[in-house]
Design goal:
CATH class of the largest domain: Alpha Beta
Order of helices and strands: HEEEHEEHHEEEHEHEEEEEEH
Distance between the termini: 45 Å
Largest sheet: 3 strands, antiparallel
Number of strands: 15
Shape: flat
Structural class: alpha+beta
Radius of gyration: 23 Å
Helix content: 10-25%
Number of domains: 3
């Protein structure tokens, strides 16, 4: 049986007293098929195993390992945003064994990428974690001990460090450039059809942590960063609560379109 067939076969057990069943439409897909059994999440919104699985899988595909409710609050254009535990998602999405394996492996990898910034030393290939996110000059203790002298490499070009340090822009090796900045400068423009066809750069750096993100060109203008989990406006680059003070999810921002970014914010985890 294929994955698609397995998802189509998912059903709630009507006799499961641990679930609260409802007859109102699915709050993710808005489907109101009277023959489909829907259950209520802890935030009060209704789902089916299929809609919940598809939504949470899409979050993982976007690099997000925290499952947030996408439904709109009743009578508003604001998203619920409630955080669902994996245990709740696993139960109400009726995840298969293969799906559980996929979800758990993806969640573990994404969580590790968020909390640990590490690369392989070009000298000994051991994994090194960078403690100072503003300094590209990184010392490898293993190479330094083996060589009997300080060995430093560039976090950006992954070559032995050349030139004075510390530095936050580049070392003096040929070709050492900030590829993320180059992407921000040269990425194409995209059109957001549901936000008055506004045009903006296709890639933005999260204003909180600096992670480069793309908009899928559908839905509203706001996205949730997969690393710091902050929601921000892709158009004006304000955090969503500030953007919504003067415009809605689907309106052009009062400050217009923010220009291409020429620097990348550094995430201070102690003050998120």
């Amino acid at each position: 049986m294929t994955t698609q067939q397995q998802e189509q076969e998912k059903r709630y057990d009507p006799g499961d007293s641990t679930l609260k069943f409802v007859t109102r439409p699915d709050d993710i897909t808005l489907d109101d098929d009277p023959d489909t059994l829907r259950a209520e999440m802890s935030c009060g919104h209704a789902v089916t195993p299929q809609s919940l699985t598809a939504w949470c899988r899409s979050l993982l595909d976007q690099g997000q390992y925290k499952f947030l409710c996408p439904a709109l609050k009743e009578g508003t254009v604001k998203k619920c945003g409630a955080l669902w535990s994996y245990q709740e998602v696993r139960k109400l999405a009726v995840l298969t064994a293969d799906e559980q394996k996929h979800f758990e492996e993806a969640m573990a990898a994404l969580a590790a990428a968020e909390f640990c910034e590490y690369k392989s030393c070009p000298g000994c290939l051991s994994v090194v974690e960078r403690e100072d996110h503003m300094n590209l000059n990184v010392r490898c203790t293993i190479c330094s001990a083996e060589m009997g002298q300080v060995y430093e490499f560039c976090w950006q070009c992954l070559k032995q460090w050349k030139g004075p340090g510390p530095r936050s822009d580049r070392c003096e090796n040929d070709g050492c450039t900030n590829k993320d900045l180059e992407l921000l400068k040269k990425c194409p423009m995209i059109t957001l059809p549901e936000v008055n066809n506004v045009q903006c750069p296709a890639i933005r750096a999260c204003p909180t942590c600096g992670l480069l993100v793309e908009h899928d060109k559908t839905g509203c203008k706001n996205i949730i960063c997969s690393r710091c989990q902050k929601e921000f406006c892709f158009v004006c680059l304000k955090l969503t609560p500030n953007c919504l003070k003067t415009s809605s999810y689907f309106e052009l921002c009062s400050d217009g379109v923010a220009p291409r970014q020429t620097s990348i914010p550094c995430w201070n985890r102690s003050n998120p």
